[in-house]
Amino acid sequence: MKDSIVSQKASLQKILQGINARPSGICFVVNEAQQLCGVVTDGDFRRWLLEGYELDTLYKELPHKAFVYAFEGEKVEEVIARTDEKIRVVPIVNQDFHLVDYLQIDKRIHMPVAMPDLFSGNELKYLNDAFLSSWISSSGKYINQFEECFAGYCGSGYGVAVSNGTVAIHLALKALDIGPGDEVIVPDFTFAATINAVIHAGATPVIVDVDQDDWCIGPEAIKKSISDKTKAVIAVHIYGQPCKMHEIMSICERNNLKLIEDCAEAHGATYDGKRVGSFGVISTFSFFANKIVTTGEGGMCLTSSEKLNERLRVLRDHGMSKEKRYWHEEVGFNYRMTNMQAAIGCAQMERIERILQKRKQLEITYKDIFSEVPSISFQKDFVPLRNKTIWLITALYKNADAKIDFMDHFKRYEIDLRPVFYPLSAMPVYQKYSVQDLPVSKHISQHGLSFPTYLDIDFDKIRKAVDGLPPALR
Ligand SMILES: *Cc1c(COP(=O)(O)O)cnc(C)c1O
Questions:
Q1: Which secondary structure element, helix H or strand E, spans residue 106, and what is its range?
Q2: What number of other Cβ atoms are within 10 A of residue 24's Cβ?
Q3: Which of 3, 202, 264, 290 could form a disulfide linkage to 180, CB 3.0–4.6 angstroms apart?
Q4: How far is the CA of 424 from the centre of ligand 1 (A)?
Q5: pLDDT confidence tier of residue 76, bands split at 50, 70 and 90
Q6: What angle do CA 345, 347, 353 make, to 5 degrees?
C-alpha cells in the first residue's frame, strides 16, 4: 500500500505514479504528520488535466473534494451504506488518522437475493407525472387507477390501496370485526407480519403447521384447531404457492369462518383457473420492493363485497364519514397509499404478464443449473390445478447441518443465498400461540434457502458457483 501513499506536497506527476502503483486506480494523500488528508482517483486526475492543470502542479494548488473514510473496527455494512455508486475504495484510518488499510467495494458484481425491476417500463414517467401534478398525498388519479386495475387483474370486485401489506391484514381483520376474544388460525411458516397483524387487532392467533408437499397451511391442521372462538383463517400463499383452496374454503364455509388470503408473495398465482386474491372474503397484498409487484412500500385489500369495500375505505381514512367531513363514525387509522406509490404500481401492472413470465423462466433456468445437484429440491409445482408464481426461488437443502457451508460457498462467488423464515413457534414472542407440535414448518425452516430472484440475473455467475461446488456439498 506504501506505493500509493503520496505527500500533500507532491506534484500531479507524483500522484499519477501513486495511482499507477495499484490496480485499484487510487492513491492516498497524507500531510506531514502522516495523517490522511485526501483520496485521488484516476477520475479526479483526468478532470484536473482537462481543467488545464499541468503535471508539475502541486497537490495543494488543486481543487479538492470531500472523501469518504472509515475508522478501524467500523462495521463494513455501515461503511458501505455511506458510499455511493462511484466510490470503489474507502481508506481506513486509526484514531490518529493514520492510514491502516482500505476497503475495496464493487457493488456491480455482488448478487443480492432480490432487486426491483423499475426501469424497463413507465415507472419513472408516471411517478414524475404524479409528482409534477402536486397530488403527492393520497388523492390523485393513480390511486383509483391502480385499485381498479389490480382488483380487476385478480378477479375481485374492489381494491383498497393501503400503506403496506401488514396494515392490509390489520385493516382486513378490523373490517371483519375480529378482535379480543376471537381466534384466528395462521400458519407457522410465514413472514411474521401475518401474526403481528392478528395480535395488533387484539385477537388470539392460533398457530398451525403447514403441509409437507406445498409448504402452505394445511386443511387437516386447520380442522384440528377450530374451537368455538375461531372466527377466521389466514391462508398464506407462501413463496408464490397457492394453498389448497377448495379444501380450505369448504372448511371455512362449514364452520362459518372468514377466510383471509395473505397474497403478499403470490401476485398472479392461480388456483383452479382463478387468481389468488379472489377467494377470500378479504385478501391482502404487499408491494414492498422485493415483492413480485412493487410500489416501494404499499399494500392492498381486495374484496367483492360492496359493504366491506366501504368499511375498509372508512377505516383506512381515520374512520371518517364519507358524507360528512370530519365526522368520525368509528376509531379508524391512516393507512392510505400515496398517489406517487400508486403511479409506480400502475406502471408495474402494465408489465405484470411479462414480469411473471420472466420469473417463471428464472425458475426453469435454476432447475436446469441445479439438475446435477441432488441435495437441492425446489418448491414443488402442482399444475394444472395450481399455477404458482415465483417470488423468491426457494429449495430445500438435504443436509441441514451443511446449509451454512453451502451458503458460504456461494458467498465466495459474491452470490447471496438467504435462509427461509424461522417457524413462528420457534420465537419466544409467539411461542404461547402454538399448542401443537409443528414438525413440518421446522423441517422447512432448517432445510430451506432462497436464491437470487430478479429479472436480469447473471446466470453465468451462478453456473460458475455451482460448477465449483465440492462433491461433499452437492
Ligand atoms: C411481505 C409480507 C407481508 C408484509 O408486507 P409489508 O408490505 O412488508 O408490510 C405480509 N405477509 C407476507 C407473507 C409477506 O411475505
A1: none
A2: 15
A3: 202
A4: 14
A5: confident
A6: 95
